[in-house]
Write a structure and sequence with these properties.
By secondary structure, this protein is mostly helical. The chain has eleven helices and no strands.
Length: about 325
């Protein structure tokens, strides 16, 4: 008798691996945009009397293309990929943790929820926020190190281990690796808005469709990320300011909170500077989220097909074993007492 087995959906580990794989691929493709948006967000607008500017030899970038030109001219194409190894490690760990916890908390909610049908938008946002907070607690040290690497000059740039040591030897000690944690916890609304909007748009635009085409997933991911970025840009700028070295005008004194960073930016550059670097931030977000979700959908489908293939193999082996056992009984000699 053939053994029947139902195709089981992939679990949290499969979803987390798919999300991490998509995130690494997406961020590797658009990494120069990530580097440039970080440099634009951390730089301070030149003062009129140039007194503060004389303290620093860091170049000032007028925009995305100006930054690309100056970095490529000073450091070559390799300069546009400075700190990429640490960044991809951070991206992989953060997204793996996020998708893992998101899958778990969403599954637990669906099992405990009494109401039929998909979760509401508010519930999706809440689930995303919980998953994002859990992910940040474990992965923020990598983000701190990456931000330091991206904002250092070519002469001061160090490897991952040396940069981590520099952070630890600073004013905050080991806790410096968790600088910006509060801002990061607040910023969990970004992925919660992103993935909450993604799930909601998926149900509205493609109702009942389980497997999206690559371009459908790309479009939904891009739209959801653009919305999240516009809403949270001031917090993103403040977080970068917290995790990087303080500007020269502060004479080495680090910021204590993201509110202090925002106050500093408003006082020295005006309120609109809270949105500096938004161009490459949105462009990077659109491309990364689109590619991520497109890749994630494909990798998840590959996992499902792989699991089904393993189930078919197991079913065949069990059937073959059953047939051999039956044949053995038929040919076994009859013992006469």
């Amino acid at each position: 008798m053939a053994v029947q087995s139902k195709p089981a959906p992939i679990g949290p580990w499969g979803k987390a691996t798919a999300g991490a794989a998509g995130a690494v691929l997406a961020n590797a493709l658009v990494y120069p945009l990530d580097l440039i948006k970080t440099k634009l967000q951390v730089q301070v607008k030149p003062s009129d009397d140039a007194k503060t500017d004389a303290i620093s030899n860091e170049p000032h970038y007028k925009g995305t293309w100006d930054a690309v030109s100056k970095i490529a001219s000073a450091e070559g194409i390799a300069g546009l990929y400075a700190g990429m190894s640490g960044s991809l490690i951070g991206v992989a760990s953060t997204n793996f943790a996020y998708f893992y916890w998101y899958s778990i908390v969403r599954t637990l909610y669906l099992k405990s929820a009494k109401a039929a049908g998909p979760p509401s938008t508010l519930v999706e946002l809440s689930l995303g926020a919980v998953a994002g907070a859990l992910a940040q607690l474990f992965t923020i040290p990598v983000a701190v190190i990456t931000t330091r690497q991206q904002t250092q000059s070519k002469e001061d740039r160090k490897g991952i281990i040396d940069t981590a040591r520099e952070v630890i030897e600073g004013e905050d000690g080991v806790s410096g690796l968790w600088r910006g944690l509060k801002a990061s916890l607040v910023l969990v609304i970004n992925p919660s808005i992103t993935y909450g909007a993604y799930e909601r748009l998926k149900e509205v635009i493609f109702p009942g469709k389980k497997n999206l085409s690559p371009w459908e997933a790309f479009a939904l991911g891009a739209m959801s990320k653009a919305l999240a970025t516009i809403v949270t840009q001031p917090l993103i700028v403040a977080k970068v300011g917290l995790q990087s070295k303080p500007p020269p005008s502060r004479q080495g004194k680090p910021f204590k909170s993201f509110v202090e960073v925002m106050q500093f930016i408003i006082e020295n550059e005006g309120p609109l500077s809270l949105f500096k670097g938004m161009g490459p931030q949105i462009l990077k977000g659109l491309l990364v989220q689109g590619i991520l979700m497109m890749t994630k959908e494909r990798v998840e489908l590959m996992f499902v097909l792989f699991v089904r293939y393993l189930q078919v193999l197991r079913s065949r082996r069990l059937r073959r074993a059953g047939d051999l056992a039956t044949a053995a009984k038929l040919v076994a000699p009859v013992t006469v007492k």
